[in-house]
Design brief:
Elements lengths: L1 H14 L1 E3 L2 E3 L18 H14 L3 H24 L4 E7 L5 E6 L3 H9 L8 E5 L4 H17 L7 E5 L4 E5 L3 H13 L7 E3 L1
Parallel strand pairs: 4-5, 7-8
Antiparallel strand pairs: 1-2, 3-4, 6-7
Helix pairs in contact: 2-3
Length: 199
Amino acid sequence: MLRQILSPLLLPLLLVGCVNGEKVIPVSTPSSLPKVIPVEVSDAMQREAETYADEHDVSIGEAIERVSIMEASGSLNAQLEQNEAKTFAGLWMTHQPEFRVIAAFTRDGEAILRPYVENTILAGVIETREVAVNQAELYSIEREAHQIVDRLGLSLVALTLVNIQENQVEIHIPDQDLLEDRLDEIFSLESDCSKWYCH
């Protein structure tokens, strides 16, 4: 009976050590994902995890897990951009109130994502969102918006950017009077400006 109680408590302690010469860190706590993932922790990752732990008020173990997830998310993002360009609309992370990875698709997100994340560190923390416009189209619209801003002589005061989380292209012009003066010109051009959010 005592052995059954102590075994789960000792398992994380036993996993700290070396496996094939690699340092293994228990990156699971009762408040995080229900798994222990072997991670080779470089000095750079350790420093990044320490900074992350301070910024987000989490343990070093949780920070190492999150940094590992962020690295895996970067690789996943590149794969989805290359292989799923027709439907992939971007990937981002939230850190508060809950750590999550979000992948946006124009359709069938869960089915598309499943083979990429099954049996990986991302499986328990990633979710999908359905949006209207894929990432490639958003960047195409942003290039068009930049050209229009440039033609209107606003490129020194305006910023165009893609907001992946909101699935939109934005034009930021800090001078509201200048914006109002130029809106008629912007909307009279051939482009469909309804795709943009200006503020």
